[in-house]
Design a protein that fits this description.
- The chain has 201 residues and is an alpha/beta fold.
- The protein has a single domain, classed as 3-Layer(aba) Sandwich (Rossmann fold), CATH 3.40.50.
- Helix content is 40%, strand content 21%.
- The protein has 7 helices and 7 strands, in the order E-H-E-H-H-E-E-E-H-E-H-H-E-H.
- It has helices at residues 14-22, 47-51, 63-74, 115-119, 131-145, 150-169, 187-200, and strands at 2-7, 30-34, 79-85, 90-98, 103-107, 123-128, 178-181.
- Strands 2-5-1-6-7 form a 5-stranded parallel beta sheet, covered by helices on one side.
- It is globular, with a radius of gyration of 16 Å.
- The structure holds adenosine-5'-diphosphate and ligand L45E5XJ5.
- The ligand Nc1ccn([C@@H]2O[C@H](COP(=O)(O)O)[C@@H](O)[C@H]2O)c(=O)n1 is lined by residues 10-11, 14, 36, 39, 55-56, 86, 89, 109, 156, 161.
- Its main location: cytoplasm.
- This is Uridine kinase.
- Keywords: ATP-binding, Cytoplasm, Kinase, Nucleotide-binding, Transferase.
- Its EC number is 2.7.1.48.
- Belongs to the uridine kinase family.
Length: 201
């Protein structure tokens, strides 16, 4: 199994890059684990308490479950990937049955920040987009898709997202094998990653 880790700040385009990589590849050959699925279960908290969580700090992620799941996939076993709701700030209780594939992609803002997880990656990718570009994308996406308003996004950006990005995400570029510049759609970089994957299939 070839395991590719794809990191980068919120709004840099990780999900978009993954979807572009998957386009034109045979269906069912590449599996995805999303770090967002592994936000810790917060069922014991009220909604008002959940809103206050720092979702950009590594402690908000259940890395133990994520690495266990990746190891199980490596061992040829299927796993039940949790489904996360950005509207409820919690897992939904549903899971997606995820089968082991020849190539597994693990994507998320902090996937290069956890040493155990990082060591499992054969190829480490960092997607870069400028800070202002990411904030604009995040604003548009969170308002249209994640049930947020301008005030919520900007407040979270100033209080937690920006400092956590500088502390835990940006320095992870150091570990990357490939850095994809993604201020604009980057078809050349996507083709390169797709070629690496195709060689493995
Ligand atoms: N290269 C790009 N140029 C313009 N918009 C982009 C680009 N890549 C992604 N987007 C848009 O930015 C938003 C955030 O992208 P997404 O892939 O969800 O980022 P991430 O998964 O890194 O948070 C989405 O609305 C997406 O359509
Ligand atoms: N309940 C939550 C959980 C996470 N976030 C934000 O999501 C960002 C990571 O997801 P991307 O798809 O943008 O990579 C992260 O910056 C968290 O702030 C949230 O807003 N609410």
């Amino acid at each position: 199994m070839l395991i590719i880790g794809i990191a980068g700040g919120t709004g840099c385009g990780k999900t978009t890059v993954v979807n572009q990589i998957l386009n034109e590849l045979p269906e069912g050959e590449v599996g995805i684990l999303s770090q967002d699925s592994y936000y810790k279960d917060t069922s014991h908290l009220s909604f008002a308490e959940r809103v206050k969580i720092n979702f950009d700090h590594p402690r908000s992620i259940d890395f133990e479950l994520l690495t266990t799941h990746l190891q199980e996939l490596k061992n040829g076993k299927a796993i039940h990937q949790p489904v996360y709701s950005f509207v409820k700030h919690n897992r939904t209780g549903d899971t997606i049955l995820t089968h082991p594939r020849k190539v597994m992609i693990v994507e998320g803002i902090l996937v290069l920040s956890n040493p155990e997880l990082r060591d499992m990656f054969d190829i480490k990718v960092f997607v870069h987009a400028d800070t202002d570009e990411r904030l604009i994308r995040r604003l548009k996406r969170d308002i249209s898709e994640r049930g947020r308003d301008l005030e919520e996004v900007l407040n979270r950006y100033q209080t937690t997202l920006k400092p956590m990005h500088n502390q835990f995400i940006e320095p992870m570029k150091e570990f990357a094998d490939i850095i994809i510049p993604n201020n604009k759609y980057n078809t050349v970089a996507i083709d390169i990653v797709r070629t690496i994957i195709t060689q493995k299939l």
